[in-house]
Every structure is written in structure tokens, then in C-alpha cells.
């Protein structure tokens, strides 16, 4: 017996030691690719030394004597912090547009792309020299055996992919369209039914100086898209000899997409247009024009100068906004006549609510979670039910009492999609059940049509716009069902679903139970257990139509799971009194072991923006690192291993 005990004991100890050694080895390999922000490098391809100062949030402030060296350095830090993301973006862009198209780019843009590519390749060469864990943790398990050198064409394709993602689904290259021919002949055509959402959306609004506390204009910018780890956006301060440029960059592209220089701030807006009116997929020429516009924005002297550039190069379907100390300018100057979206309606309400805005007030508008969808649809859905009781019952509950309690709650609700409230959960479950009842008989196999929330379609039907109420009738039944009957039946469907899921006490229901953010780590290739371990989950407020935008998923079991939403927000003013502020959902680093992997996540959830400053003296306070890139000499033409101070 003693011998058996010793065998088991030694076996257990051997397993523990093996597991410990294995874990230690894995940690060692992963930790080798965590960037050291105090490490200096000698690299080929630079004209002069470059300083990279990382502030307390690891935002790089890049200082160099030439624009080429600044663009080299932003390529270097993109690869240093987001190598996996760079390679993933390149792989995706190459899948859509596999060949380079030779273009005659503006010299400044061509030089910038070449310098950026040289910076990325400088980091790749350091990684290939060994000792850096292949530069990114997912590369230890990905199928990328070797990493091809970065080229200017890679950046051009990524810019084209970005523009493609701004288009509605059927207008994007490589995306099939949903034909309106499948509408039954006896149904009124409702164009909103087949509208598809873009992968990313740009939004912006500006306030003239006569409506701000400081007398200088304010520009608020919002970008919505995938909420993933790392974030799709990378914050950077590019200190050119002509002046600084700070804002949101996109890994793979050297220019600031949304941001400001010392004199001008700029942002963009895309419009929700019907699919048939949307431009088709962007060309390489359009992508080149977009990059040229961004390069010129960085050197603009005032808002009028910037908008003059946009007038020649802005892609169709976008609006550019720019401000300086005195002016708000936009292109196109006259907005095309189109129906306002639900977000536009709420924004107009918030702008009209107060006469004078501060940057804090603009931030409050961006973080608003009151839904105009609820305030518009709920009176149409509940107008009869607030006064008529039901004789139906739900198993295990008194349906009439439960319905009356919930309808009373909705009657006093202001439409705020607060994560701790039950009303948003009831409202959207009801809307989802109603849309399914109305559309499932016409499109029994096209689940994306009747599961994706479409309040524009429901508004047309419930308000009987041009006879659209006919959609409430079930085609396969003999009687003609009315919208009031469908609304009542959908409410019972929703209550049954909620009672089965959460019990009969509505006080225990919360929107955040279903409306949960699932921000996952995005590896280069396949997802797996590691992706699940590195993801972030939390209840979150908002909906797809609030100013702080959070999307819905398409999973049957988790219909309100959030995987996309507002992933960059900025409020900018060209004045020392007001300042500029930004926030992104994760951190600067794409490495899970870095302390800057998700350091911005709590601030993003709470709506606490970071000061957006180009003052290097402020960046030095609490700086997380300072590194220098030194050009290789003729005696040392190749890149040397970095040294750590």
C-alpha cells in the first residue's frame, strides 16, 4: 500500500512539475513579444533620429526632423504594438483585391506609404532576428510560416477595404444583394425592408462658436464598427516639423483618419442610404484619393482650406466636416434631401435642448443612451393595449396582471436603454417578436430579414404608410389579421420568452442580462479557446440607434449580444480653454500580456475621455516609456538588435 501511495504521489508531483514547466515556457514565449517602450533601436532607412515618447496611456508621440521619418516611425510602432492586426488586415484586403494596381500617386503620399512600409519592415526584421516571440502571440500558433515584407500596395488595399466597409452590405464588393423581387405580389413594397448595414459607420456633428462656452467651434466625431481586441483604431501624435497631428490612425495606413493639427480638426460622416442608391465598391483610384485627402488635411491651414481639398477628393456617400478657431465648414455644403435616421432625430433633440455647449456637454451627447426608436415605436405598438385587457394566459403566470405591470412600466419609461433597467429588455424582445410574426410567413428561410431589428420597416407598417399595414396579414391564413392583433400576440410571445428565461418577477429583469458586450481577441486566422479566454464581457447600455451605439447579434439564443458599436469617439476644439478629448474601447497594445492591452476599457465603459494633447511636456508626466530610433551608419548598414536602457 505504501508503495502504491508513493507511486501515486510521485506521479502527481511529476504532472504538477510538467504543467508548471509547460506553463512557464508558454509564458516565457508569450512575454518575449511584449514591447519594451524604453528600448532603443538602430535601424536602416531613417534620415535622422526619431524619438517615440509613450504617455501614461501608451499613446506614442513621435518627433522627427522630416515627414518621411515620422511616417517610418508610425509604421514601426504599428507593427510593434499591432503586428497581428496588421497581418490580419493585409490578409483580408488581399482576399478581396489580390493584385496591386499601379497608380501615379501624389509624391507626398507615395513617399509616406514607402516610408511607412519601411518602418513596418524594420520591425519585421528585428522580429526575424529572433528573441521576440515572433512579434505577436498569435504568430506562435498561426499558420504564418513566414511574413512577407510590407509594401505601399498593402496600405492602399487596406484603405480600399476600409472604404468598402462603409458601404451598405449589397453595395460592398464581394457581398451578395437581397433582391426585392422576392417580395410577394400582394405586399406593398417598403424599401427599408432590404436595407443592409455597413460594417463601419462614420458620424460627426459640429457646433458653431456662437453656441459654445468658449466662443470657438466644437467638432464631435464617432466611429462605429467591430468591438474587438485590439481596437480597430490606434491613437497617435505625429510631431512633424510643420506642426503636430493627433488622432485616430488605422493600423496599415500612416495617416490620421479623424483628428486635428494645430489649426484644423476634421471628421467624416457617412449616410444610411438605400442600397439601390449606394455607390458600388470603391476603386483603387478612390482609395488613393482618400489617402491623398488625409495627407493634405494634416497640412491644412484652416477649415476652408481642408474643405477645399475634400471637394475634389471626398468619396461619394461621405460628408467631411472641419473646424478652426472661427469657422465650421463642410462638404458637400448642402446636404442631400433624405429621411432622417432615428439617431439624427435624437441628436436634433439633444442639440435643441441647450443653447450653449461645452466639450463636456458634447461628450454627454455622444454618450446618450435614449433611443428614439423606443419613443417612436412604443406609442404605435401599445396605443390599444394600454387601455384593453387580455383574456389570454401564459403558463405559470397571471398573464393579465403581468402584462398590466409591464405596460405600466413602459408607459412611464423615457426610452433610456440603461443596462440595469428591465424596460429596454421588454421593448426589444417585443419588437423582435413582432417583426418575426410579420415577416416569417413571407420569408420563412431568410432569417436575416426577420431577425435583424428593422425599426424603419416597422414604423412604415404600424403607421400604415402607403398601405404598408397589409404586411401584418398572415398570407397562409384565411382571416385577415390586423397590426393590432399581431402586436398583441407578439407581446404574449415576448412575455413567454422572458418568463421562461428570467422568471415571473420583472424587477429582476435587466437589459444588461441580454445586452452584453462580448469583445473578443481577434487572432490572425481561426478562433478557439484562447480567443474566449482573452475576451472581455460586461453588461452595456444603448442599442443600435442610440448616440452611444451598440449593435445586436444574430444568434437565436443570444439575440442582443453586442459585438459592434461605437469604437472611437472624439470631441475636439481648436482652443486652449476647451481642449480636445478622445476615447477608444481597449488599449494601445495588441498583446494580451501588456498592461496596455485593455487599460482604456474601464474609462470607455464609464464615458471618461482622455485629454488629447500634443504638448510633449504633458506627455512626459507619467510617461510609460521613451525610445529612440537611430539611423544605421555606413559602418553598420544592417539593423542591430535594440538595447534597453
From TrEMBL:
Ranges annotated as spanning the membrane: 7-30
Gene Ontology MF terms in the entry: hydrolase activity, acting on carbon-nitrogen (but not peptide) bonds, in linear amides
Keyword Transmembrane: yes
A GO biological process held by the record: antibiotic biosynthetic process
Keyword Transmembrane helix belongs to the record: yes
SUPFAM superfamilies: N-terminal nucleophile aminohydrolases (Ntn hydrolases)
Superkingdom, taxonomy of origin: Bacteria
Keyword vocabulary terms for this entry: Membrane, Transmembrane, Transmembrane helix
Matching InterPro entries: Ntn_hydrolases_N, Pen/GL7ACA/AHL_acylase, Penicillin_amidase_A-knob, Penicillin_amidase_dom1, S45
Family: Belongs to the peptidase S45 family.
Protein name per UniProt: Penicillin amidase
Organism: Wenxinia marina DSM 24838
Amino acid at each position: 500500500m505504501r508503495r502504491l501511495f508513493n507511486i501515486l504521489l510521485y506521479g502527481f508531483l511529476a504532472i504538477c512539475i510538467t504543467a508548471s514547466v509547460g506553463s512557464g515556457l508558454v509564458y516565457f514565449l508569450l512575454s518575449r513579444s511584449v514591447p519594451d517602450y524604453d528600448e532603443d533601436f538602430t535601424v536602416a532607412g531613417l534620415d535622422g533620429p526619431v524619438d517615440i515618447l509613450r504617455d501614461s496611456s501608451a499613446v506614442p508621440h513621435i518627433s522627427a526632423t522630416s515627414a518621411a521619418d515620422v511616417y517610418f516611425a508610425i509604421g514601426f510602432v504599428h507593427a510593434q504594438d499591432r503586428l497581428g492586426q496588421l497581418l490580419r488586415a493585409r490578409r483580408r484586403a488581399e482576399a478581396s483585391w489580390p493584385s496591386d494596381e499601379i497608380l501615379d500617386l501624389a509624391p507626398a503620399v507615395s513617399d509616406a506609404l514607402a516610408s511607412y512600409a519601411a518602418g513596418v519592415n524594420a520591425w519585421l526584421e528585428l522580429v526575424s532576428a529572433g528573441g521576440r516571440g515572433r512579434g505577436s502571440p498569435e504568430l506562435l500558433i498561426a499558420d504564418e510560416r513566414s511574413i512577407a515584407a510590407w509594401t505601399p500596395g498593402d496600405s492602399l488595399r487596406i484603405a480600399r477595404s476600409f472604404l468598402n466597409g462603409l458601404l451598405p452590405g449589397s453595395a460592398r464588393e464581394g457581398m451578395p444583394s437581397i433582391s426585392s423581387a422576392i417580395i410577394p405580389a400582394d405586399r406593398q413594397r417598403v424599401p427599408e425592408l432590404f436595407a443592409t448595414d455597413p460594417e463601419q459607420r462614420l458620424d460627426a456633428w459640429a457646433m458653431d462658436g456662437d453656441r459654445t462656452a468658449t466662443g470657438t467651434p466644437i467638432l464631435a466625431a464617432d466611429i462605429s464598427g467591430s468591438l474587438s481586441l485590439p481596437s480597430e483604431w490606434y491613437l497617435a501624435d505625429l510631431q512633424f516639423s510643420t506642426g503636430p497631428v493627433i488622432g485616430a490612425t488605422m493600423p496599415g495606413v500612416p495617416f490620421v483618419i479623424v483628428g486635428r493639427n494645430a489649426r484644423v480638426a476634421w471628421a467624416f460622416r457617412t449616410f444610411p442610404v438605400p442600397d439601390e442608391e449606394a455607390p458600388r465598391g470603391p476603386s483603387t483610384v478612390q482609395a488613393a484619393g482618400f489617402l491623398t485627402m488625409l495627407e493634405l488635411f494634416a497640412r491644412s491651414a484652416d477649415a476652408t482650406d481642408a474643405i477645399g481639398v475634400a471637394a475634389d477628393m471626398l468619396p461619394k456617400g461621405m460628408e467631411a466636416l472641419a473646424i478652426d478657431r472661427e469657422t465650421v465648414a463642410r462638404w458637400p455644403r448642402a446636404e442631400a434631401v433624405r429621411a432622417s435616421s432615428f439617431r439624427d432625430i435624437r441628436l436634433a433633440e439633444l442639440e435643441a435642448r441647450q443653447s450653449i455647449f461645452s466639450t463636456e456637454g458634447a461628450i454627454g451627447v455622444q454618450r446618450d443612451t435614449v433611443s428614439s426608436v423606443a419613443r417612436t415605436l412604443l406609442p404605435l405598438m401599445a396605443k390599444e393595449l394600454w387601455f384593453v385587457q387580455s383574456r389570454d394566459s401564459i403558463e405559470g403566470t397571471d398573464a393579465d396582471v403581468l402584462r398590466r405591470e409591464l405596460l405600466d412600466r413602459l408607459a412611464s419609461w423615457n426610452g433610456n436603454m440603461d443596462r440595469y433597467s428591465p424596460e429596454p429588455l421588454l421593448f426589444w424582445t417585443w419588437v423582435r417578436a413582432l417583426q418575426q410574426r410579420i415577416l416569417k410567413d413571407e420569408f420563412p428561410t431568410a432569417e436575416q430579414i426577420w431577425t435583424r431589428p428593422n425599426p424603419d420597416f416597422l414604423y412604415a407598417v404600424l403607421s400604415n404608410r402607403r398601405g404598408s399595414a397589409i404586411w401584418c396579414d398572415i398570407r397562409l391564413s384565411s382571416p385577415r389579421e390586423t397590426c393590432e392583433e399581431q402586436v398583441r400576440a407578439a407581446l404574449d410571445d415576448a412575455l413567454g420568452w422572458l418568463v421562461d428565461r428570467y422568471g415571473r418577477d420583472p424587477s429582476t429583469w435587466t437589459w444588461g442580462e441580454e445586452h452584453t458586450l462580448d469583445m473578443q481577441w481577434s487572432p490572425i486566422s481561426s478562433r478557439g479557446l484562447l480567443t474566449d479566454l482573452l475576451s472581455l464581457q460586461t453588461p452595456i447600455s444603448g442599442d443600435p440607434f442610440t448616440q452611444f451605439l451598440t449593435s445586436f447579434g444574430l444568434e437565436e439564443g443570444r439575440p442582443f449580444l453586442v459585438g459592434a458599436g461605437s469604437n472611437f469617439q472624439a470631441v475636439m476644439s481648436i482652443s486652449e480653454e476647451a481642449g480636445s478629448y478622445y476615447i477608444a474601447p481597449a488599449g494601445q497594445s495588441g498583446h494580451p500580456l501588456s498592461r496596455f492591452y485593455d487599460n482604456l476599457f474601464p474609462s470607455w465603459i464609464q464615458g471618461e475621455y482622455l485629454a488629447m494633447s500634443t504638448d510633449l511636456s504633458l506627455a512626459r508626466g507619467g510617461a510609460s516609456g521613451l525610445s529612440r530610433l537611430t539611423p544605421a551608419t555606413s559602418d553598420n548598414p544592417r539593423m542591430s538588435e535594440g538595447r534597453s536602457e
